[in-house]
Amino acid sequence: MKKYTAIHDITDLHAWIEEARHLKKDPFAFEHLGKRKTLCMLFFNPSLRTRISTEKAARNLGMEVIILNVGSDSWVLEFEDGTVMNAGSSEHIREAAGVLSQYADVLAVRAFPELKSRTADEDERILTSFIQHASIPVVNMESATAHPLQALSDAITISEQQKTSRPKVVLSWAPHPKALPHAVANSFVQIMKRMPVDLTITHPEGYDLNPEVTGAIPINYNQEEALQEADFVYVKNWSSYLDYGKVLEDPQGVHAKWIMTKEKLGKAQFMHCLPVRRNVVVEDAVLDSTQSLVLEQANNRTYAAQLALKKILADEI
Ligand code: CP
Hints:
Blueprint: E1 3-4, H1 13-25, E2 38-43, H2 49-60, E3 64-69, E4 77-78, E5 91-92, H3 93-103, E6 106-110, H4 118-123, H5 125-133, E7 138-140, H6 148-161, E8 168-173, H7 183-192, E9 198-202, H8 211-214, E10 219-220, H9 223-226, E11 232-236, H10 262-265, E12 269-271, H11 284-287, H12 294-313
Parallel strand pairs: 1-7, 2-3, 2-6, 4-5, 6-7, 8-9, 8-11, 9-10, 11-12
Helix pairs in contact: 1-6, 1-12, 2-12, 6-7, 6-12
Bound molecules: phosphoric acid mono(formamide)ester.
């Protein structure tokens, strides 16, 4: 089935990036492709960038867009098969996906993890249920473990901004008061592995990502050391993967010192997927400097989404 739900759905990354950059220069070149086609976007969680950039991308391709906030605007869905639905959920995914497949031509789904059970989150029940029960292509707008539209946008941004043929990219963990998913970090690592870059990951001990994702990528628990000679520093918080979904105890208060500062950034360019908590994750001086690429990343979300939708509409994936 045609879909864009994971980094491995990208066939030739270099060609995809080139094509996205062409779309950026000429966004209405494929307006005919989406004529009389509808994108239905389902949100189980909040969004600013994904919601607006994906809608804009679809409209650039001539598509109609329908947005549904699942649970608040619609019935609460049941995902278990064979269950007696006499509690909170009113509609089963089998009917919901079947019905939506009649109203739309492409489905896009955002469904975050609960961060209670690693196994449950890695099962990606909501996303995979839509893939299984919908008869139309599905796009992942951030699931429990992956955010492939963000990662594609980040890869486009690096390709546009790089000043050397093989830049050093550092993914640096940052402090955050809440337990956050691993999706952005996972997809960023997966896409960087396919880019001509030297990637290093730095985080406090205990915050190692899924080793199946990081593989042979160097991990350095010393942030200052990892940041040496960096060209791009991608800052992101994630909760512990080992002590799954937890913000780890930090009695000495050392984790707060992982905030990104102008001094630590040096001459590197700063990246973050947004939203970002100022002066917790990164200090104002970084975000307000010309070294920050956060607006460029957010702008490229449109062309990442437009490329994925274009490839689905043109039957290229
Ligand atoms: N980066 C990102 O996905 O932003 P939103 O959560 O606002 O969509």
